[in-house]
Write a structure and sequence with these properties.
Elements (H helix, E strand, L loop, with lengths): L9 H11 E3 L21 E3 L10 E7 L1 E7 L9 E9 L9 E7 L7 E11 L7 E9 L11 E9 L2 E7 L8 E9 L6 E8 L12 E4 L2 E2 L4 E5 L18 E8 L3 E15 L8 H5 L2
Antiparallel strand pairs: 1-15, 2-17, 3-6, 4-5, 5-17, 6-16, 7-12, 7-17, 8-9, 8-16, 9-10, 10-11, 11-15, 12-13, 13-14
Length: about 290
């Protein structure tokens, strides 16, 4: 959940949250995800950053306030290099205007409406209270075949109030009313965490795109707090428009409110595809 205008101060942000948050109703136990197929699965794209530079096809996108986004060898989950959002800081927590450092990637025309993803993330030295986005994927609205970024619906993986969060958005600006799912799981600090997600814009015969699903180190996250964020506030849920194909990815770190503690994130072994990619087994992770 994010404030998008400079006049959204901390108190108004909390009022908006309190006015539309509620406990999520119990959902039936979902079937297990399909077997992980790794980077060998047809249609899967993987980036390990081992070129030592921004990979081909990715271009700089957001660049606001202090910090730097680069590929370097300061920390890597595998190999030598990783994408590093270095020393992000600036703005006031609870108010609009945080640091943003991201890249974007245009997907091929035939990618399709279902996007599985995986990335390993390392964060230090503190968990931000502000909304910190890590990855999003965008798609044209019904009846459209493409379009500029500001015309696209999108799913987002993020953290907020030091916990993992997932969001469905209409086009930005304004990007709301948005459907927000806030977990009860704290952001993993000072260790590599494997995050997986399923953004199902087709959702079978259902009338709307599916809610985002997220896994941390192989365990699916729960969403005990869900709410609509909008300006002005509302409790009416947005209609999650269905997708025919995803067209754009964004990766990096983008804070929608301020960050007072200089913070580093590393992203490594990013992958997306039409089937589950999966994390490496814990034994392999422990050996790194």
């Amino acid at each position: 959940m994010r404030a998008r205008r400079d006049w959204w101060g901390p108190s108004l942000l909390l009022v908006a949250l309190a006015s539309c948050s509620h406990s999520a109703p119990a959902r039936p136990v979902a079937p297990p995800p399909p077997p992980a197929r790794g980077c060998e699965a047809p249609g899967t794209r993987c980036w390990d950053f081992e070129e030592g530079r921004i990979p081909d096809g990715w271009t700089p996108y957001r660049d606001e306030l202090s910090g730097e986004l680069r590929v370097d060898d300061s920390r890597a989950r595998s190999g030598r290099y990783a994408l590093h959002a270095s020393k992000l800081v600036g703005g006031t927590e609870g108010s609009q205007g945080g640091p943003k450092k991201t890249l974007r990637f245009d997907l091929p025309a035939g990618f399709g409406p279902v996007l599985w993803g995986r990335v390993y993330v390392y964060t230090t030295p503190a968990r931000p209270l502000s909304h910190a986005g890590l990855f999003n994927a965008r798609y044209p609205r019904p009846g459209q075949s493409g379009g500029a970024v500001e015309t696209l619906d999108w799913y987002e993986l993020a953290t907020y109030r030091q916990r993992y969060m997932a969001i469905w958005h209409p086009p930005e600006p304004p990007g709301f009313p948005e459907w927000v799912q806030l977990s009860d799981t704290p952001l993993v600090l000072d260790a590599w965490a494997c995050l997986e997600w399923l953004f199902d814009g087709a959702n079978g015969t259902h009338p709307e795109a599916a809610e985002p699903r997220v896994w941390l180190n192989g365990t699916e996250l729960r969403w005990p707090e869900t709410f609509v964020f909008a300006d002005p506030p509302t409790t009416e849920r947005p209609v999650r428009e269905k997708a025919t194909r995803f067209t754009m990815l964004e990766a990096g770190v983008f804070l929608y409110q301020g960050l007072s503690v200089p913070t580093d994130w590393w992203l490594d072994d990013l992958a997306v595809g039409p089937q589950r990619i999966g994390c490496e087994p814990p034994a392999a992770e422990a050996a790194r």
